[in-house]
């Protein structure tokens, strides 16, 4: 009783004072934790007729509550317990409401309804029942729509996901694991809506009985019958919507099945999708490796181009340096830019000394460079062959 904010002694006193059937406790103990899937079909309306001609009606009404503050869980399931003792003799009505939390929307509406009635007494036996239904039934529509949007996203991924392409990231495959989660939410949802539908049908039956016994006039009975017909049709429509969504979830399962076999177990489906996820990640790894190889090939090509440039510069330098060295030794005595007779430029007759010294020195330098380079290449080739032989052994 602690979740309801009352003590066990107070609840027993309430039951004993008004001679309430002990089955009411079965509904009261349903509070304290979030509504369980195993209790999804529990709490439909029951009616007991007392010896004094009164009617005791009690039921749990589960409803969806907007929880948009949490993006991952936009809707949460709550419930309200209703007990109503109706005495046609006019001795009054007994109403007991057990709310999911303090100052709930329903509690505020009940207080406003009682305040608006003359002397705080509802005019019709069905007034509070209509208030409960009108407050919460419509929430199921938006809850079902929210689930439908989640399923549509999953269907789109299942239809477009190509496991042969490595660029499909793991989020797409992980998204395909949600049918289990969505299926777990849809199955109890159908049972809860069906329990609400049973309650509406019971109220319709009571309306027929009360009208037949002249407890209500034609106008009130017809009005209540119209309201119940609307809610019954609405709930039946919700059930059809849930059936459609269940079919879509099943379709998602079929899309990710083996071609010749159907996956009949959620556990097997999860394992199968994990295998697909591993394959996709392996393909992704191969793609990354190929990209690395391409980058290395490009880098090698650029390095080769750079080496060719270095070789050209080296050759030019090797040709230039010997001549430059010889010219430095001989100085500028081989050239005369202004002779004694006014000549503009003259070359010494001993210029052949520069040629004889520079050309052999240049050839010697180039030959030495070529010899050292070839020797290093042979040494590298020998080391490479030795490594290959070691790997072969």
From TrEMBL:
Transmembrane annotation, as ranges: 308-331, 351-372
Annotated keywords: Membrane, Transmembrane, Transmembrane helix
GO cellular component terms, A-Z: membrane
Residue ranges occupied by any CorA-like transporter domain in the UniProt entry: 54-156
Main localization of the protein described in the UniProt heading: membrane
Pfam families referenced in this protein's UniProt entry, alphabetically: CorA-like (PF26616)
Highest taxon, organism lineage: Eukaryota
Membrane topology qualifier: Multi-pass membrane protein
Localization in the cell: Membrane
UniProt-listed SUPFAM superfamilies: Magnesium transport protein CorA, transmembrane region (SSF144083)
Record-given protein name: CorA-like transporter domain-containing protein
Species whose genome carries this gene: Petromyces alliaceus
Source lineage: Eukaryota, Fungi, Dikarya, Ascomycota, Pezizomycotina
